[in-house]
Amino acid sequence: MNRKTAYSATAILLSLVLLLSACSSSTSTTAPATSTENTATTESTATERTLTDAIGNKVTVPANPQRILASYLEDPLVALGVTPVAQWAIGEGNTQGYLQKQLANVPPIDSTLPYEAVLNTNPDLILMDSAEMVAGDKYAQYNQIAPTYVVGKAQNNDWRQELLTIGDVLGKSDQAKKVLADYETKAKSAKEQLQQQIGSESAAALWVTGKSIYVVSRNLSSGDVLYNDLGLTAPAVVEEISKSGEANWQAISLEKLTDLDADYLFLINSTEKSKEEITSPAVWQNIPAVKKGHVYDFSADSSWLYTGAIANGQMIDDVLASVLKK
């Protein structure tokens, strides 16, 4: 989303990022799916396959779908070299900014997926993020437009499994495995560089909006990248707050902010203020990262509020460029 529209769109984005933890990244390993979840349940011919989605629907997937609608699943699609017919947006076309290099010419579609808007995209396959998106009679409506496959919450909670699931549905399993392998190689290399540079020093990611400050959870969203993939140390405050709820980003009080013992601070800035203006109040001054000048800010257009192979890869680039810079 553009910085100038941050205020109008932040409230909607807050509700999605904070409350829909299904759109998060978890380090827990997803167990092999059962027959009601498994994307690999193939029953038909080589030209088209009938798969069972996460909520038990039998879905006939075209052999080579050309017009795929996969709202809020654009990251795995793009990672697999697929351009969707429309891209997820909130408000007046506020899209996922970090994907716009790849999706600049893809029209937006409202995140609520109105029936007429979906119909107008003329899809030949619809991928739905979760069961909530097809609640009530919505599945039947969408399925009248095109075969509709629900990826499911279990896969949403593990971006790696989500990528593999979508790769399987699209007949791109080998590409999905390569994307994962490349990501793991990148993360391992970055982790080694950071270990050499900063050792066990701690880091935290804070999302600053017009009225509130949020800290990323230990094992979700960008927290998963910082602490699990890159091996950075989570401050005690992050550990404590992470245990208090299931949201990707959780509100941090000013009292807790003063206790934040982070050597490096990554700010996701949804305000019009500079990082210097944000961190100038006394409540910020005891944070080691502020004292050392180790504060790095990124706009809400960046990938830090999202998750996926592309989003997480960009976060790794951001961390390395910030921490390792001379």
From TrEMBL:
Domain Fe/B12 periplasmic-binding: 65-326
Signal peptide feature range: 1-33
Swiss-Prot/TrEMBL keywords: Coiled coil, Signal, Transport
Keyword RNA-binding: no
Annotated coiled-coil segments of the chain: 173-200
Alphabetical list of Pfam families matching this protein: Peripla_BP_2 (PF01497)
Subcellular location, record wording: Cell envelope
Domain of life: Bacteria
Disordered: annotated span: 27-46
GO cellular component, one term: outer membrane-bounded periplasmic space
GO terms under biological process: iron coordination entity transport
Principal place of residence: other
PANTHER family the record matches: IRON III DICITRATE-BINDING PERIPLASMIC PROTEIN (PTHR30532), IRON(3+)-HYDROXAMATE-BINDING PROTEIN FHUD (PTHR30532:SF26)
Family: Belongs to the bacterial solute-binding protein 8 family.
Name assigned to this protein: Iron-hydroxamate ABC transporter substrate-binding protein
Organism: Paenibacillus kyungheensis
Lineage of source species: Bacteria, Bacillati, Bacillota, Bacilli, Bacillales
